Amino acid sequence: MVGPAVKREAVAHLRAVMGLSERRACQIVAIDRTTVR
Asked: Which residue has the higher pLDDT, 1 or 12?
């Protein structure tokens, strides 16, 4: 199981590399947006 910190890093990576929105990146990683903010 992956913790929230790793998922936050994954969201940041998707946003930086692929130019995705925060909402879309969170959907892909399966993390709630409030956890990322």
From this structure: 12
